[in-house]
Amino acid sequence: MTTPIYFFNKNKLDISNPNAILTASQAQAYVDFVRNRKNDSYWITTGSVDADLTNIVFDFVDERDVDFIMLVNHNFKAYTVQYWDGAAYVNFSQVIAETVNTTDTTFHSFTKVATTKLKLIIQGTMILNADKRMAQFIASTEIGQLNDYPEIKAPAFDRNLARTEMLSGKNSLIENIGGFTVTLDKANWKTAADLAIVETLFFINNGFLVWLCGNDIQQFGASSLRGYRLQDIFLMKCSNDYSPEYMKGLIEQGIGITLKLVEVVD
After folding, report:
1. CA-to-CA distance for 90 and 190, rounded, in angstroms?
2. What's the rounded Cα separation, in Å, for the pair 43 and 28?
3. pLDDT tens digits, residue range 152-181?
4. Among 91, 98, 156, 227, whose Cα sits 20 to 30 Å from the Cα of 78?
């Protein structure tokens, strides 16, 4: 059984949030890397062992709603995540207390809470006593997961190449940091819940997170390509206008809507 595309509100700990304070019991100098949206830079310890029970406190400063947490590109076998209830760190309704994890990107959803702080405690790594590492820590609220399956068109990673032709006739290519773009197209959106999600995406002020795999990479084959992996979650916005046109003008035929998504800074 396949899993539809998932959408989330922007990470409440995103690097664009100047108020968030992250405090790590080890490797404090690198802890802000977990909120820069990149999977090739890490918070990583040096000389850490499992017995250290390394922890990171994520302080929103002001109260924020949270109903999911995602740990991206990490090597934790055993870990716990709790939230501050005003007096102590307590478990979520769906307890996050992994002991035999084998996946490097993990997703946890739970009943929404309003909190000022989260705490991650790492009790063990996949390789005994290895240094801990994590590329991203995302905590926010869900926009929703589609019921239907729009066609995923023209996924592209813009390499932002600057090309210069040399006197020899050869070319010099300078590659800068690019962005991800993709189009989601469906001729007959009919499900009310899906239409509500789509309309939210068009009119949301901030960027939103897009997870094409929906927490299921098996639907794309055992070795999924870039863009469809568990770790591939992008901050995006709709670049086209909202045009909810009924097919042939008939309500029962559904609405044709195309979403042209582009990766954004904010």
Report:
1. 41
2. 8
3. 999 999 866 566 677 776 766 555 556 999
4. 227
Tens of pLDDT, residues 20-64 = 999 999 999 999 999 999 999 999 999 999 999 999 999 999 999
Rounded Cα distance, 102 and 98, in Å = 10
- State how far the Cα of 98 lies from the Cα of 46, in Å rounded to an integer: 23
pLDDT digits (tens, 9 = 90+) for 115-133: 999 999 999 999 999 999 9
Q: 152-155: which pairs have CB atoms within 8 A and are 24 or more residues apart?
A: 152/182, 152/183, 152/184, 152/212, 153/182, 153/183, 153/184, 153/185, 154/181, 154/182, 154/183, 155/180, 155/181, 155/182, 155/212, 155/227
Q: What 3-state class would DSSP assign to 145?
A: strand
* Helical residues (DSSP H) of the chain, grouped into ranges: 192-203
CB 178 within 8 A of CB 159: yes
Rg (CA), the chain: 21
Domains in the chain and their CATH numbers?
11-140 (2.60.120.260), 151-263 (no CATH)
SS3 194: helix
Nearest to 41 by CA among 231, 197, 173: 231
What would the two tokens of residue 182 be?
């993709």
